[in-house]
Amino acid sequence: MKNLTKKSLTKLKPSATLVINEKCKKLINQGKKVYQFGFGQSPFPVPEKIVLTLKDNAHRKEYLPMQGLTKLRQSISDYLKDRTEIKYPEENIMVTPGSKEAMLLMHVAFNGEVILSAPSWVSYEPQAIIGRNKVHWIETTRENNWFPTAKQLEKKVKSINKKNLIFILNSPNNPSGTICKNLKEIAMVAKRYNLLILSDEIYTDLTFCNKYESISKFYPEGTFISGGLSKWCGAGGWRLGFFAVPDKLSHFLGSIKTLASESYSTVNSPVQYAAVEAYRGDYREYKAKTVNILRSVGNYVYKNLRSNNILIKQPQGAFYLMPEFLNNKFKTSTELCETILDETGVAMLPASEFGFKSKKMLTRLSYTDFNGAEFLKANVNGNLLDDKIIEKYAPNVVEGIQKLSNWAKNL
User: Which of 42, 102, 251, 390 gets the highest tally of CB atoms within 10 A of its CB?
Assistant: First the structure.
C-alpha cells in the first residue's frame, strides 16, 4: 500500500453518494419521476439567525488563521465539553472545509493501517488509499446493530499485529441509521492495544434518543473527533467541519496543519464567523423539531417497508435505513438497485459501496426527500408524528416507499 502509484489513484471511483445525486438530477431533467433516497443530505433550512450572521459577515475577505478563527475553535471546544464531558482545548482543534476534508488530512498524515467495519461511509476506504494506508475490514451483523463487538475488534487487532492502527467509528451510523451500544467495551480494547480511534460525530446531534454518546468519554486519550455543520444544521454546502485532537496526540495536529497550509490554506471567512453563532447559540428547539421529524419519517418508512421479503432495523439516528431484500433474482446489490430505480423510480445505494460483499442484498435508503422548511411549519411536538402529517409534508417519501413495498412483494 505504501508503494501506491499515481496510476492506482486514477482507478479510484467518484464518491457513490455524489454520483447517485447527479444521476437523479439527470433523470429528473429528462422528465422522469425519481424518489431521491440515495443522497444523504439534510432537508432542513439553516436556522435564520445563523444565516443572518453569515450575511452580516459577508464583507469579511481577510485570510483567517490557518487553524481557524480563535473564537470558533473556542466555541467548538465548549460544545464538545458540554456533550462529551471531555476537554479538547481550542489549540487542539482544526477548522476544516467540511469534516470530509478533516478526515482526508488525517489519513494522509497518519502512518499506519486502518480498521473499518462493514458498513462504513463510502469515503473512508478511498481516503485511506489516498493516504497510502492499508485497510482491514470487520463485517458486522444486524444482531449487533451493525457495529463490531469488542471480541471482533480485538481479534482483528491481534491478526494485524501492527503498532500504528486506527479504528474509525461513526455513530449514529451512515449507512445503517443505528447507534453503537457497546462503546465502553470497544474503548477497553482500544486502551489495551493502544488503538487510536477516529470518532466521526457528524450525526451525533441527530440521535433519536436525544443522548449524545461519544467514545471519547471512555477513551479520551486516544480519540480524535470530527464533526461539522452539514447534518444537524442543514449547512452541507457551507463546508464547515472540525478535527479535535486529545492532548496526548497534539503533535499529530502539526502534520495536519502543514497539509492544510499546502492545500486549502484556510476555511472561508464569512462561514467561520457564522459558525461561531451555530456553536454558541441556543438551537435546542430547532434540533428537537428536526430530530423528531426525522425520527417520525424514519419510523414511518420502517413500519411500511418491513415485510417477509425485507429485513430492516428500526431507525435510531441520522436519516438512513439499511433494508435487506430477500431474493434469488439478483447477483449483486448494484444490480438490485439499478433494477429498482428502473422499475420504480426509487434511487438507493448498494451495500457494496459501504464495505459489504457484492452478493449481500442490502441497500442504503435516505428518507430525506421532502421539503424541510415546509415540514417545520407543522405542529411538531415530542411524540411520533401522525401518519397524516407525514403524508402531507413528505409525500415523495410516502409514495416512494409504497412503490418499493409493492415491488418487493413480487420477489
Answer: 102
Rounded to a whole number, what is the distance in angstroms from the first to the last CA of the chain? 41
More confident residue, 122 or 40: 122
pLDDT in tens, 54-90: 999 999 999 999 999 999 999 999 999 999 999 999 9
With cell 471512555, the residue in question is 218
CA 153, 156, 158: angle at the middle one, nearest 5? 110
> Each residue of 243-302: pLDDT tens digit?
999 999 998 999 999 999 999 999 999 999 999 999 999 999 999 999 999 999 999 999
d(CA 228, CA 235): 9
- Report whether 218 contacts 190 (CB < 8 A): no
Find out whether 289 and 380 touch, Cβ atoms under 8 Å.
yes
CB of 355 closer than 8 Å to CB of 119: yes
Is the whole-model pTM more than 0.90? Answer: yes
Q: What is the percentage of the chain residues whose pLDDT exceeds 70? A: 95
Q: Which of 325, 332, 303 is nearest to 390 (CA)?
A: 303
- CATH code of 48-280, in short, is 3.40.640.10
Q: Provide the residue ranges of all domains of the chain, joining segments of one domain with +.
A: 6-45+284-408, 48-280
The mean pLDDT value for 105-124 works out to: 95
> What's the 3-state SS for the chain?
CCCCCHHHHHCCCCCHHHHHHHHHHHHHHCCCCCEECCCCCCCCCCCHHHHHHHHHCCCCCCCCCCCCCHHHHHHHHHHHHHHHCCCCCHHHEEEECCHHHHHHHHHHHCCCEEEEEECCCCCHHHHHHHCCCEEEEEECCHHHCCCCCHHHHHHHHHHHCCCCEEEEEECCCCCCCCCCCCHHHHHHHHHHCCCEEEEECCCHHHECCCCCCCHHHCCHHHEEEEEECCCCCCCHHHCCEEEECCHHHCHHHHHHHHHHHCCCCCCCHHHHHHHHHHHHCCCHHHHHHHHHHHHHHHHHHHHHHCCCCEECCCCCECCEECCEECCCCCCCHHHHHHHHHHHHCEECEEHHHHCCCCCCCEEEEECCCCCHHHHCCCCCCCCCCCHHHHHHHCHHHHHHHHHHHHHHCCC
